[in-house]
Amino acid sequence: MNRTKILKGQMDVIIFPYRYMLLASYVALTMGANNTTTPMQNLWYDLFVKQGYSTVIRPVYNTSIVTDVSLSLHLKSLNSFDEVSGILSLNAYMFITWYDAFLTWDSPDYDSISLARWPQDPSILLKNAADGTIDWSPMEIFESSCPVDMTYFPYDIQTCELQFMSWSYTDDSVQLYTNRIEYVDLEDFTPNPQWEIISTDIFFANNTPANHVEVLSFQIQMRRKPRYHLSTMFLPIVLLAVLDIFVFILPSDGGEKSGYAVTVFLAFTVFLTIVNSTMPENSENLPIFSMYIIIQTGQSTLITMFSLLSIRIASFDETTRIPCVLAAMSRLVRMIQCKTTCKNRCTTKINKIGNEDECGGDDDSYVDRKDSDYSLENETLTWRHVANAGDLVCFVIFSAAFVISTVVCFCAIERGGR
């Protein structure tokens, strides 16, 4: 098997020169028979057939001379950016220029031709000047892996690099440089609906003598456009959190209170699953938005627990003794309600029969509770009163927690993404 490969390689080495000789003989016979050759055909024959041009040989007569290759990147469009896999897809073309000592000619000998174009295939065209300057402008779809930082999603800024280097030669033979020192050309760029390019940069990634290989890096910094994610992810979660708090408005003697709380909790878990599916699996940078959803999910868990506890408390009968702490909390809540609902003073009025009415009545049949023997301390409390007071306390506490967590998280996301 190895012998066959060696013989085949030897035959290729022997036959390869004769291919050009046969091609040259055919072209020469054709040119001689027709005698209608053009200066461009003569130029092509002299450069690629007569000289035996080869693309595997570095185009210098003196191997100690360094070949300088100029690169510039011109961005056409940003096709996609996959945050989960960290793959950036770009549609761009490059201007690559170098000097080829084997592709030079005297213009007067070829009817003053100073520039020739050599098509390699339908997508590649080389422009060749008479002085040996080669210009190549390939259009490609470039894909690059990028480190993804979703900390400030959806106001995050991602930085990606496209690195170019010579795989076959060290910096002693080929050196890369760019004629656009500061930026990537965006003159022909088509805006992307999801990302906005805010800056570009060009630099050498490992320009140190020990590496012996120059890596030219084109850096692109882009910012996410947040409007879509704010309307489809942030707003529904905020509204769900608001609805979750209003479970304490429902009466405790009905079964819809527990069902309402559990439904909202399940909605939070669904949103958490959706958000995690769009985020990369990264333990170093946890998105603040994911932390916010976790906080709201934890708060929804506590709300569900307190709602079930309130339903249980309201079901107790009068034979069950109310602890002093709960009794004091209930009286304090009722006193605060009294102070906030009465318009003129912290009193309610009762009629002479003993029925309660709202503050501010003008009927003479009413007397002021402040002047009567009635007091909150002497009022008979029930477990229903305790449940209602607990609902009010939970409503205030969870409302404050929701406002604080929302303001802190959103401010941190918005400021961090600047």
Task: Write structural notes for this entry.
- By secondary structure, the chain is α+β, with helices and mostly antiparallel strands.
- It has 4 domains: 36 residues; 159 residues, Neurotransmitter-gated ion-channel ligand-binding domain (Acetylcholine Binding Protein, Chain: A), CATH 2.70.170.10; 112 residues, Neurotransmitter-gated ion-channel transmembrane domain (Methane Monooxygenase Hydroxylase, Chain G, domain 1); 57 residues, no CATH class.
- The strands form 3 sheets. Strands 1, 2, 3, 4, 5, 6 and 8 form a 7-stranded mixed beta sheet that branches.
- β11 and β12 form a beta hairpin.
- α3 packs parallel to α5, α5 runs antiparallel to α7 and α6 packs across α7.
- The radius of gyration is 40 Å and the shape is rod-shaped.
- The protein starts with a helix and ends with a helix.
CATH class of the largest domain: Mainly Beta
CATH architecture of the largest domain: Distorted Sandwich
Average of per-residue pLDDT values: 78
- Total domain count: 4
- Which runs of at least 5 residues are low in confidence (pLDDT < 50)? 1-29, 343-374
CATH superfamily of the largest domain: Neurotransmitter-gated ion-channel ligand-binding domain
- Alpha-carbon distance between the termini? 64 Å
How much of the sequence lies in strands comes to 15-25%
- Which secondary-structure class do the elements indicate? alpha+beta
Main sheet specs = 7 strands, mixed
Give me the strand/helix succession. HHEEEEEEEEEEHHHHEEEH
Shape: rod-shaped
Q: What is the CA-based Rg, rounded?
A: 40 Å
Count of DSSP helices? 7
Number of strands: 13
